[in-house]
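Weekly structure sync, notes
Attendees: PL, DS, HV (note-taker this week)

Item 1: ATP-dependent Clp protease proteolytic subunit
DS walked through the input record. Source organism listed as candidate division WOR-1 bacterium DG_54_3. Sequence as pasted into the shared doc:
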Amino acid sequence: MGRVAFYPNMKAIINNRTARPSMDRARIKRRSRRKTLWMGEKNFIDSGIESKRSQKFKSMVACFDALPEMKVENPFPEEFFIPDRTIYMAGSITAEVAKVVRGLIHDKADRDKNKPIILWIDSPGGDVDAGIMIKEAMEAVKPKISTVAMGGVSSMAALLAAFGSKGYRYILEDAILMYHEVRYASEVVLGAEEMQKTAKELMDTTDDLFGMLANASGNVKEKILNRFSGKDAYFSAEEVVRAGFLDGVIEPVRYYGPANPWGWKIVSYRSPLQKTGKKVIDLQDKIESSGMSGSVSLRGFLDDMHSSRIIGQLVSHIALNPKQDVLLKIKDSPGGFIDDGMKIFDVMRLINALPNCGDVMTSGSGGSIEGISALLLSGGKYGKREISSGTRMVLKDIVVSAPAHAPASRVEEIGDEADRFEKMLISKLSSHSDLSPETIRAEIAKVKEDEEAEGHVISAKEACKYKFVDKVLAKN
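Item 1 (cont.): predicted structure, written out as tokens:
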């Protein structure tokens, strides 16, 4: 298990390839007469991409231990990030990942028994036994374990988010949590008697896990079982807090007013770390950065590992250089998976809302910036978003994929989730431009009828006119 320099100024502890479970099913793997239960699923919602997600995926655990050596004051709110106390877990939860996370939790607890440990969770789920190993480590140490859910957090990973210390469990504004029963794939062939034993094991494991969730959330186990039985239960950030599974939403929002039409505030840090209740930071007196000394690149299709790398680089740069801007360069990107794009979008907005701190600028170049990548381009700091003159923005309809032999009820459920994501994306695009949600929806609807149309194409000049960007560069 070698070290990999995956992020600058970060230590990537593990970088191993694992197979991601396919949509709408978990699996039982038989190894040496031992069954491994999987709770794992990713919502396969693309932004303008029809191809199915690759089953090969890199799991990763990373920490930011190199940052405290710089002796720079942490610019981030402690609910979200503390340099030497933050662990980033991305990808499927495997036994190898669990061992590394457990070791890091105990190591950080030994260093300081009072300061909270922050666990970022960006995972579709995975091995139940591995998840329980992480849960036991979280409960075994004295420091509070603060969890931050980002992107699409499903199954066992969603349970871990709820297993953090009460009052210290957070979610980024646009993250989605999904809970469901433990499942197995139909391709597993067993004898009748062994199949019955396996079914009972699945039901018992589901009952135990949801019992733990009930204890963590203050809900009644029977109600949780009834609600999650036989289906995937999706929760937005607000819904999951209302249900009691998590405690607060990390939510930087834009507000409008005659005195500050493009101002930002951070709201809704419902946290015991605060001394004064609701935190509201006014950014009118924001100090302008002295210059840009770093950049992060996105080129091609946006997937899990691209998003993890970009988030790590953005946070590392701002933590090391709080007064300097960082540039997100997007070139020839056809879009990608919505949950991966939205977690980058949330982190960008959080950074841009920090007082006395540098901003995330964006720059688009190449042939076209499409789908979720177009939202990232428009999500840079207002006044600091650029696009090359020959580059187009392409707004696309959401494309979803359903599992083979899915029942009508499941297909309908996937369609509802796709509609939910589409409304969210259109709302975000509208809030970062001069176009209303109705106008954007109407323009996208026009191209749906044309099967050969690649989407609603916006030239660089039009993108500037509609305030998706602020400046058109003369050369590509």
